[in-house]
Amino acid sequence: GNSVTQMEGPVTLSEEAFLTINCTYTATGYPSLFWYVQYPGEGLQLLLKATKADDKGSNKGFEATYRKETTSFHLEKGSVQVSDSAVYFCALVQGAQKLVFGQGTRLTINP
Amino acid sequence: DTGVSQDPRHKITKRGQNVTFRCDPISEHNRLYWYRQTLGQGPEFLTYFQNEAQLEKSRLLSDRFSAERPKGSFSTLEIQRTEQGDSAMYLCASRPNLGGANVLTFGAGSRLTVL
User: Fold this and answer.
1) Most buried among A49, A99, B8, B80, using CB within 10 Å?
2) Do A99 and B104 touch (CB under 8 A)?
3) Residues B110, B90: contact at Cβ < 8 Å?
């Protein structure tokens, strides 16, 4: 079945550092890929998405490119801020099927 | 439209008691999903509805769990005879039946603690 694997956390960085959170997936066909973010005490929010190969999703300075050849959707940000501290989830969905999540990566940004 | 609402936000109960959670989706969304999230893990799918029809249930949804969406609007998730292993965050999400690029909108969740 479909699955998502994220790099293990937690990840701790200093403000203005470069961020990469790795995500790889297993799926038949061509799923849509997502990054969701969960801030402390809040629900999951969509951060960005890509629906086909080579698409790049972007939002709030975050980017991720749908790489079919490596089945990856790594999340990147050039300069992180303290306010980016949260848990990040990579996820996929295929057609009308359910959303499948990775285990999440907790990110802490120190001033 | 205030998004997806869940109630209660927190519930503490004793083992063996029954609990019920309610979810009010975005009004025009036909599809409603329930997920469970335990500490340090990603959300796990439990069940989903299209309008009032329950179309899929996970093996995680034991006989003690039941979900309903009687009028195709709000949904309830009931857990009978709770066990300590049921302690988790229960998330509800909704989306339109067509379009929307498969994007789910999540509520803030209902946190269950079973003592």
Assistant:
1) A99
2) yes
3) yes
ω before B8 within 30° of 0 (cis)?
yes
Give the pLDDT of residue A62: 98
Please report the sign of the dihedral spanned by the C-alpha atoms of residue B40, residue B96, residue B61, residue B63: positive
- The tens-digit pLDDT sequence of chain B (115 residues) is 579 999 999 999 999 999 999 999 998 889 999 999 998 889 999 999 999 999 989 988 889 999 999 988 999 999 999 999 999 999 999 988 766 667 889 999 999 999 9
Residues of A in contact with B41 (CB under 8 A): 103-104
* Contact map slice: A 51-110 vs B, CB within 8 A: 51, 89, 91, 93, 98-104
CA A85/CA A88 separation, integer angstroms: 9
- Find the residue in B nearest to A39 (Cα): B108
Q: How many Cα atoms occupy the beta-carbon half-sphere of A36 within 13 Å?
A: 25
Short-list B67, B62, B59, B74, CA closest to B25:
B74
- Whether B101 sits inside 8 A of A51 (CB atoms) is yes
**Amino acid, single-letter form, for residue B53:** A
Residue B87 in 3-state DSSP? Answer: coil
Q: Among B44, B91, B103, select the one facing A49 at the smallest CB separation.
A: B103
